Amino acid sequence: MNKKIFDTIVIGSGAGGLSSAAYLAREGLNVLLCEKMNEIGGYLNNFTRKGKSGDKYTFDTGLHYVNGCMEGGDFLAILEEAVGPQSKNLNWNLVDPVKINRYMYNDFEYTIPMGFDNFKNSLLYKFPDAKETINKTFHMVNDIDQTFHKVMQITENIETKSLFGKIAAISRLVPIFPKLLRYTSKTSKEILRDVNDYRILKIFESFSGECGVDLEQGTSIVLLLAKHYSNGAFYPQGGTKALINLFRDTILRNGGTVMKKAGVTSIGKEGDFFKVVTQNREFFTKTIISNTDAKVLYSDLLPQEMVPENVQKKIQNTVPSVSNFYTFVGTDLDLSKYMTSGNVTIIDQNFFDANNQSLDGHFLTSPTLKDPNGGHSTKGKYSLEIISDTCTFEEWKQWENSKPYQRPIEYMKKKEEIGMKIIKLIERKFIPNLTSHLDFVEFATPLTNFHYISAPNGSMYGPAQIPSQTFRNFYPIETKIPGLYHCGSSTTFGGVAPCLSSGLNAAKKLLGHHKK
Ligand SMILES: Cc1cc2nc3c(=O)[nH]c(=O)nc-3n(C[C@H](O)[C@H](O)[C@H](O)COP(=O)(O)OP(=O)(O)OC[C@H]3O[C@@H](n4cnc5c(N)ncnc54)[C@H](O)[C@@H]3O)c2cc1C
């Protein structure tokens, strides 16, 4: 076996792993990034397939829009911190500002525009009879937003403050503490209990859906998605590959090493060093950042004697977020007749899959329409993705040990049956004649997420965003094992920006460890 020592080893190349590895490489550390799959990026990955016509279609999996990419926006700031001035090489397309998200329910529909005030005003215009409810709901969302902004301002860099500075910060927190406790401990449903108009409730319920939890269980913080696209939604030119390449190039340019097909099988200790073992090699380091799900890190990679008992218990009790069914379509139908670069969600509460499980939300997005010059399809053809939830892992679990592309015929049949049912629903409700214009079609199930990401139960956003698993209940970035740091969706809210940010936080804490 080859032995090699690195300053730090990053395990997993999702958003968090990429940002931490890029930041540390730029800080001059000798970084090794180990990714188990044959491509880096985790949920940022994309893939290309040939249709019957021979034309190619490119699909993104886990990024369809982000916010904060306008001049001075948060997302751009995170990116610049991770990769430096090269971040300016990536351009962003603004998703249709008038139709960021169109929700089509069985009995009504509503489209969210850019701008929080526009959102509120358009609701008031469409549902004048619900004026009081709308005002109350927006007041509530504003209050949650302001409470969190204040807390973030007060606690920013609190670790680096003097004792007096820390006491001063804590005393400023006292007056807002009751609200903070209320918002972090309540579900969205509890916060919205006075909203008695079912249409407004359904629209706000959609925000929970986008975070992979339902209104009954999701933390009230997911309601902040209502403000999320105030300054617009964005999509990277060239798709998610362009974003991944920005990180990869930064790591390589700064002397880092990126290893694909390098799944870590265990982490151990040899003297002062961690021993990181992949299928055929051993690497040594004093610091690690794991971008894997907490269950992978604490149950599969670390010997149990290194894992504190309370963490072992927490792992057993962690509820994963929901999983999804994907439908990837390449078509010669002119999709611009039906949708724009904005997303469309069709909610059909009467839609059941082959096992009679409700699969009611179908999120449609077209990379071609989001980025017409980005090479997602040839001219006149369109790539379309349909992400359907909630699709439970249990239904597919019996096939979890079979290999992708070699799964049994029963699995293939069930996948095809559900997928075609979804396509027919979209045809009936939204894109007529879709079935006669399928140049390419492929389906994927929760087993796909499990295979590619090692996401427990194929979860889309890491642990479910419920009060008992968010904020002070996130898995810590600085673990109890000295030198071991953690980032990604187990340590923060799901979504590309929070995960990138968690990678930066882990990297900064780790640098402090190196300086000790
Ligand atoms: C269908 C879908 C749509 C989404 N849409 C959006 C969207 O539009 N906007 C948005 O902001 N967010 C979206 N998200 C969420 C977002 O993609 C994720 O929250 C985010 O990308 C997760 O990043 P992460 O840092 O947790 O890493 P992950 O993407 O979870 O990656 C973890 C990496 O670790 C690797 N790994 C695991 N075990 C090992 C091991 N033992 N050794 C080596 N490597 C290992 C995995 O292979 C993977 O590459 C979506 C998610 C899904 C599933």
From TrEMBL:
<protein>
    <recommendedName>
        <fullName>Amine oxidase domain-containing protein</fullName>
    </recommendedName>
</protein>
<keyword id="KW-0521">NADP</keyword>
<dbReference type="Pfam" id="PF01593">
    <property type="entry name" value="Amino_oxidase"/>
</dbReference>
<keyword id="KW-0732">Signal</keyword>
<feature type="domain" description="Amine oxidase">
    <location>
        <begin position="16"/>
        <end position="510"/>
    </location>
</feature>
<comment type="similarity">
    <text>Belongs to the carotenoid/retinoid oxidoreductase family. CrtISO subfamily.</text>
</comment>
<dbReference type="InterPro" id="IPR002937">
    <property type="entry name" value="Amino_oxidase"/>
</dbReference>
<keyword id="KW-0520">NAD</keyword>
<dbReference type="InterPro" id="IPR036188">
    <property type="entry name" value="FAD/NAD-bd_sf"/>
</dbReference>
<dbReference type="InterPro" id="IPR052206">
    <property type="entry name" value="Retinol_saturase"/>
</dbReference>
<keyword id="KW-0274">FAD</keyword>
<keyword id="KW-0285">Flavoprotein</keyword>
